Amino acid sequence: MPAVVEIRELVRTYRTRRKAEETVALGGVTLTVDDSEVLGLLGPNGAGKTTLVKILSTVLLPTSGTARVLGKDLVSAPQTVRENVGVVFGGERGLYPRISARQNLAFWAALYRLDRRTAQNRCSELLERMGLADRADEPVETFSRGMKQRLHLARGLIHGPRILFLDEPTTGMDPVAARDFRALVRELRQEGRTVFLTTHDMAEAEALCDRVTLIDHGRLVLDEPTRHIGRYLDARECVDFTCDDPAVLAQVPELAFVESVEPRDGGHRALLREPADVARLLVWLIERGVLSARRSEPTLEDVYLRLIGTRAMSV
Amino acid sequence: MNALRVIAAAFRLQLAITRRSPGHLMILLTSPLFSVIFLSLVVSGQRSGTLVNGVLAPGLIGLWLMSLDLAASIIEEERWAGRMELLVASLTPVSLVVFGRIGVVILAGALTFFESWLVAVVGFGADVPLERPGVFVVAILATCFAMAGTATLLAAVFIKSRALHVFQNALTYPFYILGGVLVPVALLPGWLEPLSRVIFLSWSADLLRGSMSGNLPDAWPAWIAMTIGLGAAALVAGFLLINRIIDQSRETAHVGHS
Ligand SMILES: Nc1ncnc2c1ncn2[C@@H]1O[C@H](COP(=O)(O)OP(=O)(O)OP(=O)(O)O)[C@@H](O)[C@H]1O
Ligand SMILES: [Mg+2]
Questions:
Q1: Which of A28-32, B30-34, B51-55 has the highest mean pLDDT?
Q2: What's the gap in Å between A50 CA and the centre of ligand 1?
Q3: How far A273 CA sits from the closest chain B CA (Å)?
């Protein structure tokens, strides 16, 4: 069995027309995905995520390096790759707004060479599944953003691809819509599909992805199963607390067993090395009247912030 | 005095601009063409074909203008709407989508012939002949096909060209004349004929006129074949060019000069 996706030293540069200089969007990415899973593609703006998605969906050619999808080379066998790959770019663009959702899907079904009967069944099935059946025959321009995004997902699935690329699919979705969307992505994995998901929502990546890949400046910074992500932090234990007394607060970082203290969601988070230190800090805090303290786990966001740091805003 | 100096400065400014963008002087090119049109109409004034021509010319011009418009906007529109990438990622060449979309609009646009017939009959109480309706219908279909093929080629050429509007303009009046839309090619100066015979319109316009007036030569099927053949040649060239532009866009990350 060939790997689902196999990327070797993938490089992509852009040459802007005015300036002679080149932008390196991907500077040699190597990555193998060999199981049906949900893979989170994370990284700051301009990191190269969309570029990677475009290359893997055959929209762009790599400048150098190779990439194979189910054993087929992207450059020499693009048609075979296209049969197996679905792609959804986030946002509302990419649909024909004047015609109905069903007509949109029927058009794409034809572009993926489904016969009429299969196309009709597939459209109805997907519209039903995306909760769009009631509005299926209304013009897409009357749809809300969330509905358009679900229609996009339906479009990406029209030919039943083994692999699906979702580039920021949940931006602008309300919490309920995003939750339903995540449930759908889990279903897709159950069906044996591999999903590449680009997102800036760390909680979403943590909840949904089996594995996360972090890209920064076109390079792979991390590629790890989500549940092992904490190992990227030296201090793997945390205590969250809120403290109004500045005198007490000032003392916490001075404690010998406290690694560091960071502001966090209106309160503070202390990072500790050993599990035993957690109990010591909790007791220390409670004795000083801080009752809100509780143990917590380092999150993907902690890892992201640690690895990408403050550079994210300077791109 | 100040006002005069401003006007003089503006005059010099525009002179400098015009030298850089000769598009402003398009009228110098189009006005002799108007002369050709009006002179031909006067010269051919008393002939019986004038009524038929009055019905056909607006239809053909309408159809052609529509094709130009569509050709100029269709690829650009797919790009702006964010659909180009999705089309590229699909199993079907973008060129087929371009041709299909153009085809429908042109078929619908063929109704302009009916409109101008109505104007002649209802508005002017004219007795418009239609001697060979069968040939007429075949000629209309062949014209639509050739129009769509040509528009597909133009869609590719336009997306490649930096001076889209100049190009678009150049394809109007000269084309009507060479295509025999306004006056039959036979009435044009003889040296223009070889040029006009590579334009599908010169065959299809003669065909349409002939099928209405009954003045058809026996070789009319060859004219149909020429119309379809020239349209098909444009279509094939259009397909090749669009496919090449898309291939290049996968490398450069932009479509044409846009
Ligand atoms: N068509 C293009 N022409 C020139 N440069 C480009 C083009 N597309 C992307 N880039 C550049 O390539 C780099 C990577 O861009 P890319 O869109 O892949 O980032 P991203 O990780 O998807 O960012 P975001 O999170 O903002 O979507 C950026 O520096 C960007 O400016
Ligand atoms: Mg992006």
A1: A28-32
A2: 7
A3: 48
A contact residues 7-66, partner B, Cβ 8 Å cutoff: 14-15, 17, 54, 57-61
Task: Output the CA B158–ligand 2 centroid distance in Å.
Answer: 30
Q: At residue B76, does pLDDT exceed 70?
A: yes
Q: Domain spans of chain A?
A: 3-231, 237-297
Please choose, from the candidates B206, B236, B43, the residue with its C-alpha nearest in 3D space to the C-alpha of residue B136.
B206
Q: What is the per-residue pLDDT across A304-315, written as a single tens digit (0 to 9) for each?
A: 877 777 554 444
- pLDDT tens-digit profile of B114-134? 888 888 888 888 888 889 999
pLDDT for residue B203? 94
Q: Which residues of B touch A159 (CB under 8 A)?
A: 91
Residue A264, pLDDT score? 79
Q: Give backbone dihedrals phi and psi of A172, rounded to 5 degrees, phi first.
A: 80, 5
Please count the other Cβ atoms lying within 10 Å of the Cβ belonging to residue A172.
16
Q: What is the distance, to the nearest Å, from the Cα of residue B239 to the centroid of all Cα atoms in its chain?
A: 18
Ligand 2 mean position, distance from CA A53 (Å):
9
Percent of chain B at pLDDT > 90 equals: 36
Question: Does A95 sit within 8 Å of B90, measured CB to CB?
Answer: no
CATH fold match for the domains A3-231 and A237-297: no
Q: Is the CB of A22 under 6 A from ligand 1?
A: no
A57 vs B contacts (CB less than 8 Å): 85, 89
Helix (H) or strand (E) holding A283: helix A275-287
Residue A108: which residues within 8 A CB-CB, separation 6 or more?
A155, A158, B86, B90
Ligand 1 site-directed mutation target among A11, A45, A52, most atoms within 8 Å of CB: A45
| More confident site: A84 or B113 | A84
The predicted-structure confidence for B176-223, as pLDDT tens digits, reads as follows 888 888 878 887 888 888 889 999 999 999 999 999 988 888 899 999
| CATH class of the structural domain A3-231 | alpha beta
Handedness of CA B139, B143, B146, B149 (dihedral sign): negative
* Residue-range domain boundaries for chain B: 2-252
Nearest Cα residue to A204 out of A235, A228, A183, A233: A183
Cβ B253 under 6 angstroms from ligand 1: yes
Residues of B in contact with A83 (CB under 8 A): 91
Contacts of A54 in chain B (CB under 8 A): 85
Torsion angle defined by CA atoms of residues B100, B105, B107 and B111, in that order, rounded to the nearest 10 degrees: 180
pLDDT at A161 over 80: yes
Q: Given CATH 1.10.260.40, say whether it is the number of domain A237-297.
A: no
CB A103 within 8 A of CB A127: no
| Residue A38 · residue A208 · CB < 8 Å | yes
Nearest ligand 1 atom to the CA of A51 is: 18
- The predicted pLDDT at position A314 comes to 46
Mean pLDDT score across all residues of chain A: 89
Q: Which of residues 140 through 159 in chain A touch B, CB cutoff 8 A?
A: 155, 159
